[in-house]
Specification:
Blueprint lengths: L2 E5 L2 H18 L4 E4 L6 H12 L9 E4 L1 E3 L10 H8 L11 E2 L8 H14 L5 E4 L21 E4 L2 H7 L12 E4 L2 H5 L3 E6 L5 H9 L17 E6 H10 L8
This protein binds 2-phosphoglycolic acid.
The site of 2-phosphoglycolic acid has 6 residues, from loops.
């Protein structure tokens, strides 16, 4: 059963999340991390950078795989997830360049790119800890609501609601890519440990649907009910409603 932790605010969501990742790296310095982008993980990355600067954390042996990337954006496009990761984390810690894996939004053969990404994850020994955010529409990575769960890393058409949600990072809706490359549901579920972070009232309905209802590919995040080691860290605005409706979920926190 998932473990739920309520933090006092967005910053503390990041602090607790960074501590969980830090514990993982201390336990296994050559950890394989699955990483996420978006507004939610920014404070978490700030806390990881602080722990690195304080000499508490060493990323020299860490390998990383990012959840997703926009199709059609080059690595140096300011809104690419390559650029996001570089700015918020990689340029500030001692991770080795060759240990960073992010799907290439400009790949000539995206399907082949997705396949070799899966192979790289296997070669690295699988993901030890996967960090996830949750979309307003219940996506994880860019696994959008659909009639079936798509297992492996794949190319996906972004829904209007995702493009609308991410429009704030672009100057117009037209500039938001219409497709992305994303880890699949099986790729995510194969991680040994999952850390899902969320904050704000606008994520409350999504997390409630995820854990109060049956598992449904229209609610991609609901698949996490089947994962044996999930920790959900969110603020009161995001998790308070779930706690009210299902206090037993929080019994172990
Ligand atoms: P956000 O995105 O952190 O910017 O809200 C989360 C997601 O879409 O997975």
């Amino acid at each position: 059963m998932a473990k739920f932790i309520i933090a006092k605010d967005h910053n503390q969501v990041g602090e607790i999340g960074a501590q969980i990742i830090s514990d993982q790296i201390k336990l296994k310095p050559a950890s394989v991390l699955g990483l996420a982008t978006g507004s939610t993980p920014i404070p978490l990355y700030q806390h990881l950078v602080r722990l690195y600067q304080q000499g508490v954390l060493d990323f020299a042996a860490v390998k990383s795989f990012n959840l997703d990337e926009y199709a059609g954006l080059s690595a140096d496009h300011p809104q690419s997830y390559h650029a996001f990761m570089d700015e918020n984390l990689f340029s500030r810690i001692n991770i080795a360049k060759e240990n960073i894996h992010i799907l290439d939004g400009l790949a000539q053969d995206p399907e082949q790119q997705c396949q070799s990404f899966e192979e790289e994850i296997k070669k690295a020994g699988g993901i030890d800890l996967q960090l996830l955010g949750i979309g307003n529409n219940d996506h994880i990575g860019f696994n959008e609501p659909a009639s079936v769960f798509i297992c492996d890393t794949h190319v996906v058409d972004l829904t209007d609601s995702t493009r609308e949600a991410n429009r704030r990072f672009f100057s117009s809706l037209e500039e938001v890519p219409t497709q992305a490359l994303t880890m699949g549901i099986r790729t995510i579920m194969a991680a040994r440990k999952i850390l899902l972070i969320l904050n704000g009232q606008n994520k409350a309905a999504a997390i409630e649907k995820a854990f109060l209802n049956v598992i449904d590919p229209q609610v991609p995040v609901s698949i996490l009910q089947l994962h044996p080691d999930v920790t959900v860290v969110g603020d009161e605005a995001a998790l308070g409603g779930l706690k009210k409706q299902a206090p037993s979920l929080f019994a172990s926190s």
